[in-house]
Design goal:
single chain; D-amino Acid Aminotransferase, Chain A, domain 1; D-amino Acid Aminotransferase, Chain A, domain 2; nine-stranded mixed beta sheet; eight-stranded antiparallel beta sheet; 9 helices; 17 strands; 28% strand; binds ligand PPE
Length: 308
Amino acid sequence: MPLTPTKKIWMDGTLVDWENATTHVLSHTLHYGMGAFEGIRAYKTPQGVAIFRLREHMERLLRSCKILMIDVPYSLGELCDAAVETVRVNEMNEGCYIRPLIYLGYGEMGVNPMGAPTNVIIGVWPWGAYLGAESLEKGVRMKISSWARHHPNSMPTASKTVGGYVNSCLAKLEAVKAGYDEAIMLGTDGLVSECTGENLFIVRDGMIISPPPSEAGALRGITQSSIVKIANDLGHPVSFEAMRRDDLYLADEAFLTGTAAEVVPIESVDDRVIGAGMPGPITKEIQSTYFQAVRGARPAYESWLTKV
Ligand code: PPE
């Protein structure tokens, strides 16, 4: 998706003009993928723009770096403050996407990352519906990928590792080139894991089910956890259960969740239409509650919002 430039990018503690926020071509992460990032959204609320679950995202960023043994020169509070400042100076009053990235910079070459400097950036830009304008209402067509999700002993799936996204890019390319909107990836054990940048839920006999993140080698999604809370509050039970591809084909409803994608109904999987081929009632109820929560229209979820 083409980027819409904004004014400033936070780079290692200072705000730099968008066009000057560059790095050396011999930066370590550019060659070996050793780095971690986050994806966060800010929304317009009646009290002004607010960042959704900022603290949880920055905590996950620090956890990603812990796994990668990258020492981050900023505290959780400093990272949260930096994100707020970046949204504020860019006057993102209609909301935006926020991309923190921690990468190893210029100075060392070779696979051994020790000694490479750690750099931290936060960029923001306006981002519309990630899976297309119609995805939220009509749903998306999914294809099970021939690319397996990483085995957790090959790539730490609990970390949003830069290099780990090659797997997602390959699955996405395959699905889009075959005429689908998005891919579903199975683990190396053949069980359903997640999508290229989203977690996945099905609804079966009134029960909402998602693959257990750790066993399935899926990212522990912050949207996924928000949906579990929202679903429980709406009186819908949620369980984490191992899932096979035929569970997807036979689901009454299905949807995917992610910060960028938000809550998107699944219309079909491998051309098997899910339910009536329209977003189901539980999906719609959860989706609309989620959009109210992120936009500050649900007092019960106000603690998830950080005012800018
Ligand atoms: N799985 C993966 C692999 C993933 O990348 C994401 C987020 C999720 C699940 C959902 O996690 P959460 O956002 O905490 O609910 N993907 C981010 C990157 C997307 C991109 O194209 O870049 C995102 O949604 O921001």
